[in-house]
C-alpha cells in the first residue's frame, strides 16, 4: 500500500532503501546506515584520527624542543660508562659510591683546568710576542717592497692608513655588536657543560639503583640480557677511552721530546695538546693537532715547521699500523673501515658528539650481537684465503700465451 499524507492524498516522498552489505562484509563498513543516517562509529573514528594526529604533532614538537637535552643526556650516559670501572673499583674497597664519583670528577676537572690554563697562557704569550714583533715584520716587508718595486713607503704612513681605513672601522663595529652573541654562546656552553656533568654524576653514583629500577619492569630472562648489554657497554666504552688516553700519553711524550730537542717554546703544553687532540678527534685529529706546533715552530725557524710536519706524518703511520692495533685489540676490536664509517655516520647524526661516541657505541653493539650470533666452521676453500680456484682441466695463462704465440709464428708450431 502506497504511503499517504495526512489529508489522504498519496505522498510523493520515497523512503531511501537500506544499503545492504555485500556477502562476507560486516555492516560496520556500510557507507550509509539504514534510514540515511550517519553510522555511529564514524564520529568516534574521526575523533580518534584527529587525536592521533594531534598527539603525533605534539610529540614531534616536544622532541625537537628537547633535542639538546637528549644529546646532553646521551653524552652524560657515555661519560658515566667511561668512569664506571674506576668508581666501581673504589666502591669495592669500601668507599661510598657518591664520594668515589666525586673524587673521579674532581680529578678530571683539575686536569682539564690545568690544561686549559697552560694552553691559554701559551696562546696569550704567542699573541703578545706577535704583537711586539709586528713593527719589525712590517719594516722588513716595507723594505722588500721598496727594493722590489722602487717605491718610497714608510711605516708611519702604512700605520695611519690602516688606522683610518673604512674596513677597520667596520670590523670594530661588527666586533662590538658580536660581543653579546659571544657572551650568550659562552654562557650556553657553560650551562650545557654543567648539565652533562650533573647527569654524569647521577648516572655513575646511582648506577646500581638505575639498573635495579630498569630490571624491575622486565621479566627475568630480559633482565639478564639488559645486564649483559650494560656490562659490555661499560667494558667497551671504558676500554676505548682508557686506550685512547694511553695513546695520547705516548703521543704527547714523543712530540714533547721532538719539540724540546728543537728548542720550540711551550714544548710540554704542545705535547699535551697533540696527544689529546690527535686521539679524541677521530681520523683527522693528528693533522689538526700538528698545526699548532708547526705554527709555533715556524716562529723559531721555518725549517723546524717542516721537520714537525714530517714527524707528525711518520708518527701517524707508526700509530696506525703498530701501536693502535696492539692497544685496542682487546678493548675495541672493530675493523678500521667500520670505525671510519661509524665516525662519519655519528658526525652526520650528532656532529662532534656523534664522532666521539660512535666508535664505542658500534663496538658495544658488535660485541653484544656477537654473543648471540651463531657461527660455523669455514670450509677449506682456496677462495677463502684469497686465492683463485683453478679448474682441473683448464690450461694456465702461461700455456695459453705459448699456444697463441705459436699460432702467430710462420711455422705455426709451438716453440719448445
Automatic annotation (TrEMBL):
TM helices/strands, residue ranges: 69-87, 99-128, 186-205, 241-259, 265-288, 295-318, 338-365
Membrane topology of the entry: Multi-pass membrane protein
Pfam families: AI-2E_transport (PF01594)
Superkingdom, natural source: Bacteria
Keyword Lyase in record: no
Keywords from the named record: Cell membrane, Membrane, Transmembrane, Transmembrane helix, Transport
InterPro entries cross-referenced by the UniProt entry: AI-2E-like
Region called Disordered, residue ranges: 1-26
Presence of the UniProt keyword Transport in the record: yes
Compartment(s) where it occurs, according to its Swiss-Prot or TrEMBL record: Cell membrane
Family according to the record: Belongs to the autoinducer-2 exporter (AI-2E) (TC 2.A.86) family.
PANTHER family reported in the protein's UniProt record: PERMEASE PERM-RELATED, TRANSMEMBRANE PROTEIN
Name of the featured protein: AI-2E family transporter
Naturally occurring in which organism (per UniProt): Streptomyces musisoli
